[in-house]
Amino acid sequence: MTWVTRIIAGFAGSLRLAVPPVGTRPTSDRVREAIFSALDARGVLPGARVLDLYAGSGALGLEGASRGAAHVTLVDKATAAHRVTNENAARVRKAAPRGAAPEIVVSSQPVQSFLGGAVGATWDVVFLDPPYDLGGLELVHNLEALVPRLSPDAVVVVERSARDPEPAWPVGLDLERRKDYGETAVYFLSAA
């Protein structure tokens, strides 16, 4: 098991997380810290329902859990990612204060299948950190399927390669801002 990332803050702060040996590109601590600083400033995490699509190690969603999200769903179809994410989720649950553990659900479905079957579920904060080679059209399809599952004040955070053109945002999502961190572009979107 490889340990290359950690929870930054909250009840599980400094907890090391495993990363799947292949097929993932973990969000750096620097980028995660910037993302969560922006989310903390908005006050959207306490009690939130968080969805982490293309979860990999689950670091983004589990960081949200550590910072007060009530429910976190981690979705990644890769077998290695699913195994590691389950282990990381168990470690975060164990670190939670007695009686205050967030609900953490891990799904091994493809993102599009998960969203298609998530009828009635809504989320307040959503992370999409797909592989950089995921085509722009597939990303747009994911976002289109996500829109009806967003709460009215939802925040969607999308990570892409800074070299890629900006995705075409579907109806129902408004771009608030883009911030680049080296090779990573982070887009903050809001439900329209």
From TrEMBL:
<dbReference type="Pfam" id="PF03602">
    <property type="entry name" value="Cons_hypoth95"/>
</dbReference>
<keyword id="KW-0489">Methyltransferase</keyword>
<dbReference type="GO" id="GO:0008168">
    <property type="term" value="F:methyltransferase activity"/>
</dbReference>
<dbReference type="InterPro" id="IPR004398">
    <property type="entry name" value="RNA_MeTrfase_RsmD"/>
</dbReference>
<protein>
    <submittedName>
        <fullName>Methyltransferase</fullName>
    </submittedName>
</protein>
<dbReference type="InterPro" id="IPR029063">
    <property type="entry name" value="SAM-dependent_MTases_sf"/>
</dbReference>
<dbReference type="GO" id="GO:0031167">
    <property type="term" value="P:rRNA methylation"/>
</dbReference>
<keyword id="KW-0808">Transferase</keyword>
